[in-house]
Design goal:
Blueprint (H helix, E strand, L loop, with lengths): L6 E3 L2 H5 L11 H9 L2 E4 L2 E4 L11 E3 L12 E5 L12 H4 L12 E7 L5 E8 L6 E4 L1 H4 L1
Parallel strand pairs: 1-8
Antiparallel strand pairs: 2-3, 4-5, 5-6, 6-7, 7-8
């Protein structure tokens, strides 16, 4: 199966030119900004400050069945399904518009590609794994 071409966002202006996380009750931008505060930057490398294996904050393994991202042997984890175990540990400002139903209050996902040392190789923003609405977040947007 062929992998979809993913557009890279280099700046907040690039992010603003997408519909990711907008309008409310969508929570994708709040998730992305929260995640940026949960990353340690060391020598321009990014590391998670928590264990995704423990389903912290609703993180769960993303199997890329839709082939929207490259398959290179590293593990993907997704954040943003507000119905997942552990997601109730996210900050209230992310959860406040979640309806508990299958609607736009629960369609945004943040996907991270990490190795066994918690080094983040890539971050993606996605509207529920739709190829045309999935974006790679470049490091320049993070710093």
């Amino acid at each position: 199966m062929m992998v979809a071409r993913v557009r890279t966002l280099y700046s907040f202006k690039d992010l603003d030119n997408t519909s990711f996380g907008l309008p409310l009750p969508r929570q994708g931008r709040q998730l992305l900004f929260w995640l940026l505060h949960m990353i340690k930057v060391y020598d321009y490398n990014l590391y998670l400050l928590f264990d995704t294996y423990q389903t912290s904050f609703g993180f769960h393994k993303f199997y890329n069945k839709e082939c929207i991202l490259p398959n290179d042997g590293l593990t993907y984890y997704a954040l943003g399904n507000l119905g997942k175990i552990g997601s109730n540990d996210l900050p209230e400002h992310i959860l406040e518009h979640y309806s508990g139903r299958f609607d736009c209050s629960n369609i945004d996902r943040i996907i991270v590609r990490i190795d066994q040392d918690w080094y983040i190789h890539s971050i993606y923003a996605s509207e529920h794994y739709k190829p045309h609405a999935t974006y790679r977040i470049h490091k320049s947007l993070l710093f």
